[in-house]
Specification:
520 residues; Immunoglobulin-like; eleven-stranded parallel β-sheet; 36 strands; mainly beta; flat
Length: 520
């Protein structure tokens, strides 16, 4: 008895769910959900009661007088109704955040909404965060030179993020880290960045490794900039340059800086006189270490120089070392001072894209099947399609160069056309029955999907009373087929039954013939 009473008061922890600004189809009045018109109140209410919290935001625009913030310790989900339906913004005029999720101990997930930097901001940023997670989020600026995510930290993830400006505005920097690193790695996947001076800026040490996979940067003066001991890997990404070098690495500290680039397509859509990759070791009084660059399975096109590397001739200063393999360029790189390039399998030539603004490889491109044949990863490309694919019909699947894997079709090359179907369908297990006043059935089995034609021809043809020839046509899948025949379809007497089947390729079966009798 005592035990049962105790159990009645012990309930499992459950999530707190808030519907902002009121109930909606996604957040109904269930008796458990709470309607809350104030998003800031919802983000912090019950934030330390030991239960996870969820805030579901209806379509519309919510405007903070300063920032939207969250306090507490419990896990929190902030879920919009879609990034083209739910918008968070601010009416503040200072240099603040629209959504400020830093300064707490919560693990926060944000998804399916847009964060809009208003024109009223003095610089400011869309998001501040601490080891949080973002998925299917738009970062939009209406203010020139604001930041997207200022000081993204180790432990964070960003997936399916679109970044762009409105009303002619552009971001100063999108993912902009300035030494507030925390611990752990950070990942970016399925990222689209346009209307920005800087894409990813990272200067945290190698204890905060960065992974970028499937990113598309359009027009950024510096899409990727790493420095001062950073460890960054970028894979399956397309970079369309702006007015500066789109990939930059520099070092003026006594730690090595490492940048790994794999399956990149880097195209000079901006200033072609800027090198695609610019790496330099600064001349400073204190010792510095190397910049280590790896470039693999990539395409650099349209630049006067694919890279320019420079380091002071000083034993206390680091070198710039580029290891380039299986990478196509249409020009030669340059070095200055203690900068060195080791390379192998570096073809020169025009990569042959599909179009001037479509950087998939065209059929016959010299970049097809020219990647490293010994590696197995990555196994997808920027579009998420499988790689490697045999793109030149030599019977061996080798990865392509660049962000996209060529997906050959029959229209590109007859060698990829499926073999012609020359096998005729087969008809078997034919059974016919007809019951007086009830009608009949014709059963048969097909070896493949076909169009079946059935003919009942009276025997003799001029029998009395006069009977008509009856034809039936059906499209059928492979396997058993049953045709029902109405009780008035056939008259009494003998018939010659003929059956043929024709498949999609036009192959015709042997004609099956039976003698049948009908009694009406």
């Amino acid at each position: 008895m005592v035990l049962s009473v105790w159990l009645a008061f012990v309930q499992p922890a459950s999530a707190n769910t808030f519907c902002v600004p009121t109930y909606s189809a996604a957040c109904p009045a269930s008796g458990i959900n709470e309607a809350e018109p104030d998003l800031n109140a919802a983000l912090s209410a019950y934030g330390a009661d030991g239960n996870p919290d969820k805030v579901i935001i209806a379509p519309g625009t919510l405007t903070a007088t300063d920032s939207f913030t969250a306090t507490g310790n419990d896990p929190l989900e902030i879920i919009g109704s879609g990034r083209e339906k739910t918008f968070l913004t601010s009416s503040a005029s200072g240099g603040t955040y629209v959504l400020n999720l830093g300064g707490n101990n919560r693990t926060i997930t944000v998804k399916d909404l847009a964060v809009v930097v208003p024109t009223s901001f003095d610089v400011g940023a869309a998001v501040g965060e601490t080891a949080d997670h973002f998925e299917s989020v738009d970062l939009i600026t209406r203010n020139e030179d604001s930041f997207g995510v200022y000081n993204p930290t180790g432990g964070s993830t960003f997936k399916d993020i679109r970044v762009f400006g409105q009303n002619g505005a552009s971001f100063g920097g999108v993912f902009y880290q300035q030494s507030y690193c925390l611990t752990g790695g950070i990942t970016f996947s399925d990222i689209q960045v346009s209307d920005a001076q800087y894409g990813l800026v990272w200067n945290c040490p190698d204890t905060n490794p960065v992974t970028v996979n499937r990113a598309h940067f359009t027009g950024a003066d510096a899409a990727i900039q790493v420095s001062d001991g950073a460890l960054v890997s970028v894979t399956n990404s397309l970079i369309e340059s702006g007015e500066g070098s789109p990939i930059r690495a520099f070092n003026f500290v006594n730690k090595p800086t490492t940048l790994n680039l794999n399956h990149l397509t880097v195209v000079a859509t901006g200033d072609p006189n800027q090198p695609a990759i610019h790496a330099w070791v600064d001349t400073v009084a204190s010792p510095t270490q190397n910049i280590n660059l790896t470039l693999e399975n990539s395409i650099i096109s349209g630049f006067t120089s694919p890279w320019h590397l420079e380091a002071p001739i000083d034993q206390s200063k680091g070198n710039v070392i580029l290891n380039a393999n299986y990478t196509a360029t249409d020009s030669a790189g340059t070095t200055n001072g203690q900068a060195f390039v080791t390379n192998s399998n570096i073809p020169f030539g025009v990569p042959h894209f599909v179009g001037f603004d479509d950087f998939h490889l065209a059929a016959g491109s010299p970049g097809i099947d020219q990647g490293d044949p010994t590696t197995s990863l990555p196994d997808t490309d920027l579009d998420g399609k499988f790689r490697p694919v045999d793109g030149n019909a030599d019977g061996v699947a080798v990865r392509d160069l660049g962000a996209y894997e060529f997906q050959p079709t029959c229209a590109d090359d007859p060698a990829f056309c499926p073999p012609a179907d020359k096998t005729a369908p087969k008809i078997s297990k034919v059974k016919f029955s007809f019951k007086r006043r009830k009608g009949g059935t014709l059963k048969l089995r097909l070896s493949e999907a076909s169009t079946v034609r059935v003919t009942f021809t009276p025997v003799p043809k001029k029998s009395k009373p006069k009977r008509k020839k009856v034809k039936l046509t059906r499209k059928a899948k492979a396997g058993n087929l049953t045709l029902k025949i109405g009780k008035r379809k056939l008259g009494s007497g003998r018939y010659k039954l003929t059956i043929t089947a024709t498949d999609k390729a036009g192959n015709k079966s042997k004609t099956v013939t039976r003698k049948v009798r009908v009694r009406v």
